[in-house]
Amino acid sequence: MTTNRVLHVVESWPPVPSGYARRSHALVAAQSRQAAIDPAVLVTSRQWVYTDDVTSTPDHDLVVCRSSPSEDRWRRIRPFHVDVARLRDEVVSAARAHDATIVHVHWSSGIGRAAAMAATRLGLPLVAEVRFDLAGAVVAQGAVTPEVIESALRRRFESHLDDAAVVIAASHPTAELVRRTTGLAVEVVENAVEPGGFEAPDGAGAAERQDLGIRPERVVVGSTAKQLRYEGLDLLLSAAAACESPPVVLLIGTGPEASRLRREAATTGIDVRLTGAVPAARIPGLLAAMDLFVAPRRDTSITRWASPLKVLEAMDAGVAVVGSAVGDIPRLLAGGRGFIVAAGAVHELTAVLDEAMTRPDLRQGRATAAQAWIRQQGDWDAAAARYAEIYRTVPRVQR
């Protein structure tokens, strides 16, 4: 059997608390169990923008870049600046050390360009993966941006796709966006979960409630979404405050909107708990502490073309999910697997919360259906097998 020696170029890595980092780690771990793939990982210096730590694992080579003097200077005013030439050279060095046959990049913009230039220098095929709409993410967090500017950003961020032997998308909505905007053929490797990976041990949810000072009889609604404007967590606060009997709102994690959410929480008059960043090991217990997981995403360019991993994790945990009808969420929650509301519709969200909070049988029925469905879908090992199929289509370098 031919083994593909793959260098994965990733923006960040655990313990960064993001769906991006969790997908990268899970995929590489699963690939390590595949006889047809020998993976190694290069983590860019953007790691240190998020954390002062990195998770090392014994089953594959891991190279973590340090920031260059140029990046240190620029990041005072542009926190996510990447020194493309320096990163190109680091990818070349790591690929040679691993004797790579494929360079697989999992980010766009400067990171994608650096990986493409490195692959060209080495004479290796490039596999380019698009996890989400980066241009949409950039404009969604700021002021309203004209569509022409957003489109120009998208063309710039995804220019490296033209150099790829294979383009992969992390969801069917993302693949549709890439096809529309580039005309390229796109393979799809969807998000997954390890069945039972987010199911907490008995009593873990009650223990988290006790530690947070939440009484057992209170209904808890919450989210583990990064605190970004397009996630709509402020809409959740508004909807919860309007409920006939307001629940406890539990927001796990942090993000650019954290300060604003704290201010809004202080004005609602309801019980809002913001934990800040927490270790990944606590997430199953915190999910078990919730009666409802809410994904109140706004309808923006990034959410229209995405499939949120955190919804899958909540489904696996056995928590009933309420989600906006945007992107892949309606498909995930179809067939009685959750509650679907119109994006941005606070009054509708309030009505659904009121009904679900007073109907524990309804919540449990949706949660059970979702958990059964998600565990019938492909896990990360199935995703790794799909990558092995894709890699086999990539032209091999003559040695």
Primary descriptors:
18 helices, 399 residues, 14% strand, alpha/beta, single chain
Question: SSE layout and pairings?
Answer:
Elements: E1 4-10, H1 19-32, E2 37-43, H2 47-50, E3 61-64, H3 69-74, H4 84-98, E4 102-105, H5 109-122, E5 126-130, H6 134-140, H7 147-157, E6 166-169, H8 172-182, E7 187-188, H9 204-212, E8 220-223, H10 233-241, E9 248-251, H11 258-268, E10 272-274, H12 283-288, E11 292-295, H13 301-304, H14 309-317, E12 320-324, H15 329-333, E13 339-341, H16 346-358, H17 360-374, H18 380-392
Parallel strand pairs: 1-2, 1-4, 2-3, 4-5, 5-6, 6-7, 8-9, 8-11, 9-10, 11-12, 12-13
Would you kindly provide a written description of the structure presented here, covering whatever features stand out?
- By secondary structure, this protein is an alpha/beta fold.
- It is 44% helix and 14% strand.
- The protein has 18 helices and 13 strands.
- It has helices at residues 19-32, 47-50, 69-74, 84-98, 109-122, 134-140, 147-157, 172-182, 204-212, 233-241, 258-268, 283-288, 301-304, 309-317, 329-333, 346-358, 360-374, 380-392, and strands at residues 4-10, 37-43, 61-64, 102-105, 126-130, 166-169, 187-188, 220-223, 248-251, 272-274, 292-295, 320-324, 339-341.
- Helix 4 (84-98) packs across helix 5 and helix 10 (233-241) packs across helix 16.
- The longest helix is centred in the first third of the chain and has 15 residues, at 84-98.
- 51% of the residues are buried.
